[in-house]
Amino acid sequence: MQKNKLNLDFGLVAEARQSAARIAADIQPFIDQHSSVTVERTVARLLGIDGIDELERPLPNIMIEAIKKEGGLPLGAAYWIGRAMLATGKTPQEIAEGVAAGEIELAKLPEKSVEDIQAAVNKVAVKTVERIRANRAHREDFIKNVGEGPKPYLYVIVATGNIYEDVLQAQAAARQGADVIAVIRTTAQSLLDYVPYGPTTEGFGGTYATQENFRIMRRALDEVGNEVGRYIRLCNYCSGLCMPEIAAMGALERLDVMLNDALYGILFRDINMQRTLVDQYFSRIINGFAGIIINTGEDNYLTTADAVEEAHTVLASQFINEQFALRAGLPEEQMGLGHAFEMNPNLKDGFLLELSQAQMARDIFPKAPLKYMPPTKFMNGNIFKGHVQDALFNMVSIMTNQGIQLPGMLTEAIHTPLLQDRALSIENARYIFNNMRSISDEIEFKEGGMIQSRAQAVLADAAAMLKDIEQEGIMSTIEKGKFAGVKRPMNGGKGLDGVVVKDALYFNPFIELMLGKEGE
Amino acid sequence: MQKNKLNLDFGLVAEARQSAARIAADIQPFIDQHSSVTVERTVARLLGIDGIDELERPLPNIMIEAIKKEGGLPLGAAYWIGRAMLATGKTPQEIAEGVAAGEIELAKLPEKSVEDIQAAVNKVAVKTVERIRANRAHREDFIKNVGEGPKPYLYVIVATGNIYEDVLQAQAAARQGADVIAVIRTTAQSLLDYVPYGPTTEGFGGTYATQENFRIMRRALDEVGNEVGRYIRLCNYCSGLCMPEIAAMGALERLDVMLNDALYGILFRDINMQRTLVDQYFSRIINGFAGIIINTGEDNYLTTADAVEEAHTVLASQFINEQFALRAGLPEEQMGLGHAFEMNPNLKDGFLLELSQAQMARDIFPKAPLKYMPPTKFMNGNIFKGHVQDALFNMVSIMTNQGIQLPGMLTEAIHTPLLQDRALSIENARYIFNNMRSISDEIEFKEGGMIQSRAQAVLADAAAMLKDIEQEGIMSTIEKGKFAGVKRPMNGGKGLDGVVVKDALYFNPFIELMLGKEGE
Amino acid sequence: MSADGRSTTSTTAHSTIDLTKIKPYGDTLNDGMMQFSFTLPVPYSDEAREAARLYLLKMGVDEPQISHYEDLGVGYTFFVCYGKGTHTVDFTKIEVPKVDVEVMDKYGVEDYIKENIKRPVVIVGACTGTDAHTVGIDAIMNMKGYDGHYGLERYEGIEAYNLGSQMPNEEFLAKAIELNADAVIVSQVVTQKDVHIPNLTNLIELIEAEGLRDKLVVVAGGPRISHELAKEIGYDAGFSTGTYAEHVATFVVTQMVQRGLV
Amino acid sequence: MSADGRSTTSTTAHSTIDLTKIKPYGDTLNDGMMQFSFTLPVPYSDEAREAARLYLLKMGVDEPQISHYEDLGVGYTFFVCYGKGTHTVDFTKIEVPKVDVEVMDKYGVEDYIKENIKRPVVIVGACTGTDAHTVGIDAIMNMKGYDGHYGLERYEGIEAYNLGSQMPNEEFLAKAIELNADAVIVSQVVTQKDVHIPNLTNLIELIEAEGLRDKLVVVAGGPRISHELAKEIGYDAGFSTGTYAEHVATFVVTQMVQRGLV
Ligand code: B12
Ligand code: B12
Ligand SMILES: Cc1ncc(COP(=O)(O)O)c(C=O)c1O
Ligand SMILES: Cc1ncc(COP(=O)(O)O)c(C=O)c1O
Questions:
Q1: Which of A104, C20, C62, D65 can pair with A98 through a Cys bridge, CB separation 3.0 to 4.6 Å?
Q2: Which chain C residues contact residue B307 at CB under 8 A?
Q3: What strands lie across the sheet with D61-71, from one edge to the other?
Q4: Is the Cα dihedral A458, A461, A464, A469 positive or negative?
């Protein structure tokens, strides 16, 4: 199967990978030395803290703010919760409720030995970890007993803003042939420094990511999955200011796929780079452990930059995302590295360049379930031409064996998908995938032809870029605007005040539990 | 370019071709010994006879019926017209008018020597031949000076029933990018044993083929061709009971493409086989001389038979059509051999079989401007899926370098094309042709893979079938229903009473003029 | 599937469907969303765009949105639009006339003939008038059948005669009489400018003129032939896309018994 | 192209277009042919099909034809239809409000500033509210421009400030005041559930509250922002798909001169 169809120089691939590994290694000490409010809220959640107060403030936020106000954050939430458990004999949730009610002041509780605290916390943590492990096993069993769709998985979005309407659309999509349902988040959620609570019915261009919404959709998809005889994967977004928290919620509710990119928040949401680098690490540890496939966001580069000129930045970013993921114990089989079909459709031979690009990603990341994004930028109100653009995209996908396919919507330039748009989009992809099922095995590319040369050139550019970044350091590279043409200062952007330097006594039980035991 | 992409056994190709050559040779004496009413009407037309009487009967029909009634047909129309010219000093048209008015009785005119008659007729015939030669030169000049579209030529139909409405639609199509405009004939015309006269505005699912309609459309296409900087080819149909007559009209009015199949009328219109075999010969001589590309009708096999199972019959028929055409002096460059994209879209890997079939035709008939027909049978009222089927068809065409492409219509299963349907169809094809322009040069097929093996198997079946027919004879083969599953008796079907055995003195000046001098 | 066809977990979304007032659905109940495409015979311009918008407003479309418009090259303009239908339809009042017999399969039909008719049933079919589309009638009649369903020729107890295409009505009827037909079944595929209507009507008139209307089961079929239409012009039934031999066979044999034509 | 846009050889076909009563065109003048697709929240059935037909009839569609219908899997049915619109529109009465200045190119604008304004023109732009779609405003403002048309930043005589995305209106206006803006230009791309309307309205209200409405040229843009809509909610102009920097530049500088803001 792995035939080096493009005649790529795998020596150069190895070099590029090493550059990326060094780039990631270079920043790891920084990551290890820091924590953030959302990382600590995640610890709180994983220890069982959930719910909101009467002002709808999530208890994890109340807890962490309380700790932060006392200057206790460098020790980590686990320390404070464990100490409170020992001191009060209460569960983490009861403690959080006490804090919220103003009945418990954490700093005023009696001190305990770190060993005792760790032991107490670990007992609770192990239970959570077991629950997540059970979710993973449940997923595997479902797939073994009931089945799943063939790759490329068909991934469609629902985005009504109302979780119940989303359920209707999701079940329809599953019956039409979808394999993955992504519940798009409401427009502004990535910039909220908390995760909303409960079932929600109001969102713009998407639905709030809440744990209850996850639960509702998970139940609906299991139901329809049993009916259609395929496990239907559920996807959400852990980007933004709450990466690890959402990862934790997803792990607890058996999500299967999470948007999760090491750089996306920095570049596209202007989130502070220190914050994102710290947050992504823990979020990926959780995703890795939970068996969740991550989806990286390289496709976003091409919605602003030109897909022909900037192809190498996509590849460079894929290498970096791969290395950051490996460091977080996330195996290749869970790396849905992103790329996209975003060239101008009026480009002569543009299809060949797209084919080249997609095959290249396939050959360089052979085990990764690549996530392939549809044409969006060059879609316009002509739905008929758009439907053909989507067909060409589906063809490239099956010609190059992609892992996860987001079939394009003919109404991409007009509105978020109608029920019928999604049905047509799935029909388009299924028709092509079936009618060309074996084509990737049947077709070869001319030695030294346009397709091969293009891939070789893009690889060379990406390798050179990575060398550059290796010299420069990732942070300085971003400051200089070398990714997606976006400059982000080291201390700019949102969420920097949520970053904290760890104390020597800091501990987070989940890193060890999830990474040590289950990491590759 | 000619790379034997499919690893075909060209020895077997040569064998098949020889079988077909022998099949055609076998029937040639029969053809040479016979003429038909439409062949003679054609001679009359080429000698300048045109127009209708007050009952709207075409003068060529009146002439030939008059000759036939007197038992004079074995000598041929040229003989009688020439004799009348010598006897009366009138032009052929004046003679025809005289006959129609009952003023001239051909058999009663004084006899003349055959040499004198031939000389007189030849003088007129040469002028007609010169006019056709000039048409051909005019076309070549237009293309040289103004230009033409790249292959595959985009061939679209107009079918309003009203020649003026057709003009509107044709000019629109040319501006949208069409290279060939085919004016579809009204439903019943192929069974008329005469050609209607003058401009017409009433037809069902098509417009009458008349010389005036040809002229009107030719003028409109030259006009728009100059405007868009591309020669726009005009196509019509010379199948049915008037094959050579329509060919003659087309040659006179500078048509560029003609539907013209050696077997179509027999199989699909139940026209007597003797009649069609005789008629096709002269019609092809005319088309060949006029530089007109013929389009054969193999696609029709697949509208009734299964495209997977009966693929070899298409190839066998292409070989036969090729040999009949060569015999009529029609060079390979004018052989638009037909085939079609007609497999069930729900077939797993069906695309690979289509690709194989199209590439096979390309490799076996390298110089022919293959005519590739779109999906029709498996189109249904779902225009969105249909548009994608058409896209896949366009892809196969550009992947295999077809010559003439009939882009499919998304409304194929609903109605004859609306103005907007045609525009969308052209847009679909142009997008794909441009976006994948060089793909046929970039892609190779796996040695021994599904694509190669399929083509090899189809070729083997076709060669075997041709061997069979060679043993059996073409007429007996058709009688037994081995083509398209349709049985046609030797003496059944329409038009047999219009066939006549030639006299030893029979002559048709155009065969020699067109074949001898210009046939390749 | 239940009337609203949705499973329990999703009912909370649309518990409010009012079947007396249904409207198109885009992504929210009663949003009325519809897609349109059409051409106006006016030159590509802002005014053309406005004309398209006004046209949709006249149709009762709210917030019409011209997503795309383009010049078709002859002073005409093509539009792709979306908008919100404001009309409603009372779904509870809809009644569709149907061929309402329980469809039997091939063996069912064969047994039914044995038990209730006790002699061969003669069915004569063709594609009449100028129509040459035989695939449909062949699908119903030929041995081989269609889509895995055998055709009438293979039914024990049925004598099926397929007279092919472009069969003039007179000739067709004469042949049917000669063969002692119990049922005549005709296919019409070309419907442009409604050419099938006079042709189908003509056949019925001929049958009536021969005084055979009561003695024959007369059936029409084709992609655009509805049962309703067929009844309207005097046929016993009409069959459209998706028909198999067993459908028409069931209808014919049960009609024969019901009408005492055995 | 002439009003009916057709060349001489084809006029015989449609010499009869009555512009006071235009109708959709399929393949024959005034055939009214239109294509539709939509979903009804009723289960796949003959009754659903009939409901779709009735719906089109209510819209004034003659001979509605359901070409295709399919089950969407949740008790809803999707339809593809054709039919003949019966309404007509009077094309001769249509007047579309337009930004009616003769568009100057980059050099034209630069010369115009030199001659008529004689000082730098300050233009401040952003994608305001929650909208993060910067590609449109970038196309207008950034150096690089779009589709071969340079952006405002490259115009001599114009000082262009692109404040980026998700810019709250208050902050945006404060910045504009600080920079002494002559024009503020805002982009709105997300229009779902009409989120852009309150946001655009809010900006105008803030400008009025500051007493700046007369002193500023205020422009909106985005794929679904028409000039008409922009005027309606109090902007000086609106620009949609297909806009280049020179369009908005021309408008701003001529407005400034017309309104005496030089
Ligand atoms: C194959 C085909 C042809 C073949 C026909 C070969 C043959 N021997 O049948 C050829 C190439 C010869 C042909 C020619 C023409 N065709 Co044609 N053809 C088609 C095509 C592609 C498929 C039709 C088909 O075979 N369907 C498959 C069968 C199984 O479906 P069906 O007919 O609907 O039958 C089913 C049911 O309707 C029902 N049924 C049908 N009949 C009956 C009868 C009874 C008694 C019962 C119970 C049931 C029943 O049961 C069947 C099985 O479920 C259609 C487009 C399309 N995709 O539909 C155009 C189409 C039908 N053709 C069309 C036209 C215009 C023509 C021509 C007039 C074009 C021309 N000017 O040359 C000619 C005219 C021929 C003539 N005189 O009739 C138009 C008709 C437009 C309209 N609405 O009127 C169509 C829709 C294409 C188009 N968009 O222009 N055609
Ligand atoms: C690229 C893109 C993105 C990128 C944006 C990157 C960026 N930095 O801009 C990313 C991936 C981040 C994105 C995110 C989202 N997007 Co988005 N996106 C698009 C996409 C594919 C292209 C938009 C584009 O760049 N067009 C090209 C530019 C040049 O065109 P333009 O904006 O129309 O600008 C021209 C004119 O309008 C005019 N103009 C525009 N502004 C101005 C201003 C002035 C003053 C003037 C004079 C002229 C002017 O001039 C420009 C040049 O001619 C469209 C789909 C499509 N094909 O249109 C969806 C689309 C706009 N997005 C959509 C949605 C819903 C979202 C999300 C809300 C999805 C989600 N829930 O996560 C998020 C939210 C982001 C946010 N907070 O706003 C919807 C909007 C639906 C609607 N009608 O409301 C669309 C239509 C896709 C869809 N079908 O769902 N998106
Ligand atoms: C990695 C990643 N995260 C998140 C998102 C979604 O954006 P938002 O930040 O608005 O939720 C995207 C969108 O493409 C993405 O690629
Ligand atoms: C060779 C040939 N001639 C003619 C026709 C047209 O049919 P008709 O005989 O109805 O004109 C076709 C249609 O496919 C064809 O293939």
A1: A104
A2: none
A3: C61-71, C77-85, C33-40, D33-40, D77-85, D61-71
A4: negative
The amino acid at residue D185 is I
Contacts of B23 (CB under 8 A, 6+ apart): B320, B323, B466, B469, B470, B473, B474
**pLDDT tens readout for residues B86-143:** 999 999 999 999 999 999 999 999 999 999 999 999 999 999 999 999 999 999 999 9
- Which protein residues touch ligand 4 with a CB less than 6 Å away? B 185, 189-190, 237, 239-240, 259, 261, 264, 269, 297, 300
Amino acid (one-letter) located at D169: N
**ipTM computed for the complex:** 0.92
- The two beta strands, A499-501 and B34-36, are unpaired
| Cα–Cα dist D165/D222, whole Å | 13
What is the assigned CATH class of domain D106-258?
Answer: alpha beta
From residue A168, give the alpha-carbon distance in Å to each of A159, A207, A411, A420.
11, 14, 20, 13
Q: What's the CA gap between A106 and A84, in Å, rounded?
A: 7
C89 φ, ψ to 5°? -125, 140
- The burial class, CB within 10 Å (0-12 / 13-18 / 19+), for D146 is middle
What are the extents of the domains in chain C? Answer: 14-93, 106-258
Q: d(Cα B7, Cα B198) in Å, to the nearest integer?
A: 52
B38's tokens? 């439409």
pLDDT digits (tens, 9 = 90+) for D12-65: 456 679 999 999 999 889 999 999 999 999 999 999 999 999 999 999 999 999
CATH architecture of residue range(s) D14-93: 2-Layer Sandwich (3.30)
With residue B313 as reference, give the H or E element that holds it. Answer: helix B311-327
User: Does a cis peptide bond (omega within 30 degrees of 0) precede residue A152?
Assistant: yes
Half-sphere exposure (Cβ direction) of D178: Cα atoms closer than 13 Å: 8
Q: Please state, in angstroms and rounded to a whole number, the distance separating the CA atoms of residues A492 and D6.
A: 60
Q: What does the alpha-carbon distance between residue A279 and residue A277 come to, in Å, rounded to a whole number?
A: 6
| Ligand 2 pocket test target in D133, D191, D218 with most atoms within 8 Å of CB | D133
Sign of CA dihedral A325, A329, A330, A332: positive
Percent of chain C with pLDDT over 70: 94
Nearest to A187 among D74, D135, D190 (CB): D190
Pairing of strands A499-501, A443-445: unpaired
Asked if C41 lies within 8 A of D87 by C-beta distance, the reply is no
**Which residue from D185, D182, D177, D180 is spatially nearest to D121, judged by alpha carbons?**
D182
Bridging pattern class, strands B34-36 and B499-501: antiparallel
How many CB atoms lie under 10 A from the CB of residue C174? Answer: 13
On whether the CB atoms of residues D12 and B164 are closer than 8 A, the answer is yes
Q: Which residues contact D107 (CB under 8 A, 6 or more apart)?
A: none
- Given a contact cutoff of 8 angstroms between Cβ atoms, the answer to whether D122 and D113 are in contact is no
Sign of CA dihedral A403, A409, A414, A420: negative
| Measured distance CA(C229)–CA(C99) in Å, rounded | 12
Band (C13; pLDDT cuts 50, 70, 90): low
Integer Cα distance of A481 and C201 in angstroms: 76
**Ligand 2 in reach of D163 Cβ (< 6 A):** no
Interface touch D76/A419, C-beta < 8 Å? yes
CA–CA gap between residue D213 and residue D41 (Å, rounded): 48
Q: How far is A138 from chain C (nearest CA, A)?
A: 21
The string of DSSP codes covering B408-471 is: --TTTTTSSPPHHHHHHHHHHHHHHHHHTTTHHHHEEE-TTSHHHHHHHHHHHHHHHHHHHHHH
A322/B3: higher pLDDT: A322
- Is any ligand 2 atom within 6 A of the Cβ of residue A112? no
Residue type, B372: Y
Q: What CA–CA distance (Å, rounded) separates D205 from B478?
A: 84
